[in-house]
């Protein structure tokens, strides 16, 4: 099973809110970095997005990344 290392997101992002609710409901731990208030986090998020600012950007412990995943995509990745 894949484990989440960190999620880069923003408080105003509906997809971020949905993702956090999905993970919280299932008791899946994650570190949260608000890209709006954390300049270092925003820079790392942009690197992972190849210059973009798409959120949520989710980094897993194995180094893989999901960007703006649906709940279905997230479920599939977490069950690998």
Low-confidence stretches: none
Q: Looking at the structure, what is the overall shape?
A: globular
DSSP helix fraction: 25-40%
Oligomer category: single chain
Query: What can be said about the biggest beta sheet?
Result: 4 strands, mixed
The tally of helices reads: 3
Q: Give the N-terminus to C-terminus distance in angstroms.
A: 5 Å
CA-atom Rg in angstroms: 12 Å
CATH architecture: 3-Layer(aba) Sandwich
For the secondary structure, the number of strands is: 4
Strand content: 15-25%
Summarize the helix and strand pattern as letters.
EHEHEEH
Spatial ordering of strands, largest sheet: 2-1-3-4
What secondary-structure arrangement, pairings included, does this model have?
Elements: E1 4-9, H1 14-25, E2 31-34, H2 39-48, E3 57-60, E4 65-67, H3 71-78
Parallel strand pairs: 1-2
Antiparallel strand pairs: 1-3, 3-4
Can you give a write-up of this model?
- The mean pLDDT is 95.
- This protein has a single domain (4-78), classed as Glutaredoxin (3-Layer(aba) Sandwich).
- It is globular and about 30 Å long.
- The protein has helices spanning 14-25, 39-48, 71-78, and strands at 4-9, 31-34, 57-60, 65-67.
- Strand 1, helix 1 and strand 2 form a beta-alpha-beta unit.
- A 4-stranded mixed sheet has the order 2-1-3-4, covered by helices on one side.
- It has 80 residues and is an alpha+beta fold.
- The protein is built from 3 helices and 4 strands, in the order βαβαββα.
């Amino acid at each position: 099973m894949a484990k989440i290392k960190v999620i880069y997101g923003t408080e105003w992002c509906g997809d971020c809110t949905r993702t956090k609710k999905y993970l919280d409901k299932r008791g899946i731990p994650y570190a949260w970095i608000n890209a709006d208030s954390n300049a270092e986090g925003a820079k790392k998020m942009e690197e992972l997005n190849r210059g973009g600012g798409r959120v949520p950007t989710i980094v897993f412990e194995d180094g893989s990344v999901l960007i703006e995943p649906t709940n279905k995509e997230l479920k599939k990745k977490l069950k690998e």
